[in-house]
Design brief:
four-stranded mixed β-sheet, transferase (chains A, B), globular, cytoplasm (chains A, B), five-stranded parallel β-sheet, homodimer
């Protein structure tokens, strides 16, 4: 019977200002680590064309969402205009408890809530190399009105001031480099002593038993 | 004029029991990062055939070495039988102050001294996958007497107990995997917020100045 303490997985939180490129980075990470679990948001807004329940989002009614808030079922949540968006706690924490890691892509406000509720997470701040690049990226999407874009850009200095609350910072200049850095962070964190106490115990016992056995 | 605080380099300490494979790992790391500085030990023993001053070791007299001990010039040192061995402090700390990283391969006793004198270092513990593998590796070298080998193997449980004082642990089962993990640790550590305060300040100022300029 194996009574050794099982080492937990990692909650890898990739965050940053809108336009920093965190979505592109996370998509690349998921291709590199297809077995890495990906946290899916829950929302009360209606599915858009092509969106799939449980893949794009978990779609819930307002009543269902508010019931879950009362049950403290979210790592973070926010109300944006008329709709709720949140990160279900159970999915991520069950995987982590089972030794699996979970990738969570999220804005800065959300990441700060996650940090309060799960400070053991690994928090990565992705920053665009310059305001010009950021502006070009947001405009290039073509999904937001000029007013929304200006609001986003105005928020950037406040958002940069939050960087010091993170564990790691990545300047997303060359995408491949940024992706490689996130992979390195995930690999390095999995070698942390604090994340391998069960593993260390197994090795330690193996040596001690052998030593006793060889006497 | 650039008055921004310059970010320091990393002291990467690769340590572990004799036979763990830290020398092989460090040799591979140096090939991958040819610009990574490598800390060279100082000793009072005579050069062996083929050893080169400043490459294999810095060779010094007993008097010179003891003078340096009094000047607190070592990150660690030890007397083994009739000779001193030590890691000069100035070389490593000058490079680190200049933003460059330094690789230091060292035994566990030495690493613990380094940790006392430079706790900001990154301490990696390399452990062999089993006592059989460790024993086979030490015997395979063919450089030590059976008595020395048995002494080394007897030390192993004490040395394993020191693992929890390190930042990272790597089980050296497949060499390529172990080398890759050390590379990831070096890369991840260089993304730590605490190691990029100067860089963050530069980015922050750039955004603030642009914002002011665009008003």
């Amino acid at each position: 019977m194996n009574t050794t303490k099982k080492d937990k997985g990692i909650l890898l939180v990739v965050s940053g200002p809108s336009g920093a490129g965190k979505g592109t980075i996370c998509a690349a990470i998921r291709k590199i680590f297809p077995k890495l679990n990906y946290s899916i948001s829950m929302t009360t807004r209606a599915p858009r064309k092509g969106e799939v329940e449980g893949t794009s989002y978990f779609f819930r009614t307002n009543e269902e969402f508010e019931k879950l808030i009362k049950e403290d079922a979210f790592l973070e949540y926010a109300r944006v205009y008329d709709h709720y968006y949140g990160t279900p706690k159970k999915y991520a924490l069950d995987k982590i408890e089972n030794g699996e890691s979970v990738l969570l892509e999220i804005d800065i406000q959300g990441a700060m809530q996650v940090k309060q509720r799960y400070p053991q997470g690994v928090f990565v701040y992705v920053v665009p190399p310059s305001l010009d690049v950021l502006s070009a990226r947001i405009h290039g999407r073509g999904t937001d009105s000029e007013e929304v874009i200006q609001k986003r850009l105005a928020k950037i200095t406040d958002e940069l001031a939050m960087a010091h609350k993170y564990d790691y910072i990545i300047v997303n200049d060359v995408l491949e480099d940024a992706v490689h850095k996130v992979c390195s962070i995930l690999e390095a964190e999995s070698c942390k002593l604090s994340r391998n106490e069960g593993q260390v115990e197994v090795i330690f016992n193996q040596y001690i038993n052998k030593e006793v056995g060889s006497k």
